[in-house]
Design brief:
GO terms for molecular function: DNA-binding transcription factor activity; transcription cis-regulatory region binding. Helix content is 76%, strand content 0%. The chain is an all-alpha fold.
Length: 224
């Protein structure tokens, strides 16, 4: 892809805007908003500070645009990968539904550890999700987090025999998602603790443990 036209200057339009976003996401992911300088961001895209002002109104606007793009793209991929959950007919055996959930989470974990770009995108999301407030947090919640939770709540509800909007269903769903996200953020810690170089050679054990944990989380009776 050409970053500049042959006659000089910058290509106007969606292509250049998207290029700046694509180059900025991993930088924001590694360094955060404050740690990513404008000079660093424009150098990665082969642009100038004026380009960020032109397309985004400044660094803060670029950060919001990155959040929108990242949330939308991540949701599209997750939703596509989880389409098999939509095909589970009413009355499906709970163990089958739990296996379907485990298959999805296992595939996501493998992709994350195999894909450096996705790992950097996960860092961007993690930084903002920890902030708990602000316009970028709202963007990621509305365009990604809420959609993911609403996607899995009907499956969790079906397993435990409750409606998808029941407070217990929603809380269990949130805890499952948090458990899986925690595994992502501790991936390298887990590898070192186990003395493994990667997860690929140990997927059978990993999948078995994940299924066991999911069954325990979804089958236990509440002690209240």
């Amino acid at each position: 892809m050409k970053y500049r036209p042959a006659e000089g200057g910058y290509v106007r339009g969606d292509e250049t805007r998207q290029l700046i976003i694509d180059m900025a996401i991993p930088i924001f992911g590694d360094r955060g908003f404050e740690g990513a300088s404008t000079r660093m961001l424009v150098a990665a895209a082969g642009a100038s500070p004026a380009a960020i002002q032109y397309y985004f109104g400044g660094k803060a606007g670029l950060y919001r645009a990155c959040a929108e793009c990242l949330a939308d793209n991540t949701w599209q991929k997750l939703n596509s990968d989880a389409r098999h959950l939509d095909d589970l007919p009413p009355g499906t055996d709970p163990d089958v539904m739990i296996d379907a959930l485990a298959d999805f989470f296992l595939a996501q974990e493998k992709t994350l550890h195999d894909d450096r770009d996705m790992a950097q995108r996960a860092l961007f999301l993690a930084r903002e999700q920890m902030s708990s407030s602000g316009p970028v947090f709202d963007i990621i919640f509305e365009r990604l987090n809420q959609r993911v939770l609403m996607k899995f709540a009907p499956v969790v509800g079906a397993v435990i025999g409750k409606a998808s909007d029941d407070p217990e269903t929603r809380l269990r769903t949130a805890m499952i998602i948090a458990h899986m996200v925690g595994m992502r953020s501790h991936g390298q810690i887990t590898l070192r603790f186990l003395g493994w170089s990667n997860f690929d050679d140990n997927l059978l054990l990993w999948g078995a443990v994940m299924r066991t944990h999911l069954r325990a989380m979804l089958s236990a009776e509440l002690a209240i």
